[in-house]
Amino acid sequence: MRALMVAAALVASQPSYAQAKDPVVSRKDRALHERLLTLDTHLDTPASLDLPGWSIEEGHNVKTDYTQVDLPRMKQGGLDGGFFAIYTAQGPLTVEGFRNARDFAIMRGLSIRQMVAADPVNFALALKAEDAAPIAASGRRIVYMSIENAYPLGEDVSLLKTFYNMGVRVVGFAHFAHNQFADSSTDPSKKPRYGGLSPLGRALLGEMNRLGIVPDASHSSDQVLDDLLALSSTPVLLTHSGCKAVYEHPRNIDDDHLRALAAKGGVIQMNAYGTYLRASRPNPERQKALAALFAEMREDAKLSEAARERLLARRQEIDRLYPDTDRPSFDDFMAHMLHALKVAGPDHVGIGLDWDGGGGVSGMEDVTAVPRITAALVAAGYSEADLQKIWSGNVLRVLAAAEAAAASGK
């Protein structure tokens, strides 16, 4: 499974990166950005941690190895930290499938913990909302943990406690397909399985509320979001989503749901996954070449460093032969951001760019470019207080509410 996950990350998800130099952020806006406590709620970077020969301690180039987050680039981009995701691809809803997914997810979580333990000078695990500020003040990167796709929990919601003990504080119910807990917004059948949460999904939500874990509705259907808003005792998070009013896509949510989310204290964290931002011109030759490369990688039982180098070289050749010439841009991302702010207000919008999981747009290719968001929000008239909420205050408020509810037993 690990080789398949690596292949997916390097072959299927990431766009081409040939483009002009990014615009320069002014000194004033950069200084403001550095004053803010900045968190991204969806980092798929843990997949990079298990790449052969790759180290988060070293600076990498998105145009050559396609990774987007490492320690030098977090410092360069002024990103204080975020939620490092334990992502598990959806597999069969069988005893064997659940067992394999559980084992993979536990090992991925341990990779995150090992990253922190290996460099306590630069990383610190955060377990509560109040942990973020002192970690940032110490000059370390803030590491919260999350789960994208609850599939590895199998049919035993009590397993959630194991991941909570590991450090997980946000959990998403589904991913690209329906699972045992909830309907996905993008299931290939295009038909609901449960019409929202399954009975097991409702039990899982109850366990999240009991433990103080924030429920994440990204990737789940609109009906799942309806159920979460009706049933959760704490506010709901969308860790990486967009706006249907800007682009009609199942992964985005409409204005009515935005307002309902805000009314219950929830937050939408804005995604930079190009496919969800706007339609792009078809590029069949590129897609055919990427599909062939991905199929070849599926046959590898284990990805060696040499095999990864061959994969990267093949991927770079595909980019050269069939460039992605109609990539969504930073302006497309900001269109979603500004619309969400208009509808839900600055108390209910945040940032979850989906780095290392397919996120990134022309003009914001990796984490070094995130100060552009601060500059664009300043230009749109938002205050420093607004920006602090957007960059971290809102998600920390939601996390604190989950903690408080769990402590009170409500």
Verbal overview:
Keywords: Dipeptidase, Hydrolase, Protease, Signal. It comes from Sphingobium subterraneum. The chain has 410 residues and is of the alpha/beta class. The chain has a single domain (8-282, 324-408), classed as Alpha-Beta Barrel (TIM Barrel). Helices cover 45% and strands 11% of the residues. The chain is built from 16 helices and ten strands. The chain has helices spanning 2-13, 27-35, 46-49, 62-65, 71-77, 95-118, 132-137, 160-166, 199-211, 222-231, 255-263, 284-298, 305-321, 330-344, 371-379, 384-408, and strands spanning 39-43, 81-87, 123-125, 141-148, 168-172, 214-216, 237-243, 252-253, 267-270, 349-351. The strands form two sheets. Strands 1, 2, 3, 4, 5 and 6 form a six-stranded parallel sheet that branches. Strands 8-7-9-10 form a four-stranded parallel sheet. Helix 7 (132-137) links the parallel strand 3 (123-125) and strand 4. Helix 1 runs antiparallel to helix 12 (284-298), helix 2 crosses helix 15 (371-379) and helix 12 packs antiparallel against helix 13. The longest helix is centred in the last third of the chain and has 25 residues, at 384-408. It starts with a helix and ends with a helix.
Describe the protein's topology.
Layout: H1 2-13, H2 27-35, E1 39-43, H3 46-49, H4 62-65, H5 71-77, E2 81-87, H6 95-118, E3 123-125, H7 132-137, E4 141-148, H8 160-166, E5 168-172, H9 199-211, E6 214-216, H10 222-231, E7 237-243, E8 252-253, H11 255-263, E9 267-270, H12 284-298, H13 305-321, H14 330-344, E10 349-351, H15 371-379, H16 384-408
Parallel strand pairs: 1-2, 2-4, 3-4, 4-5, 5-6, 7-8, 7-9, 9-10
Helix pairs in contact: 1-12, 2-15, 12-13
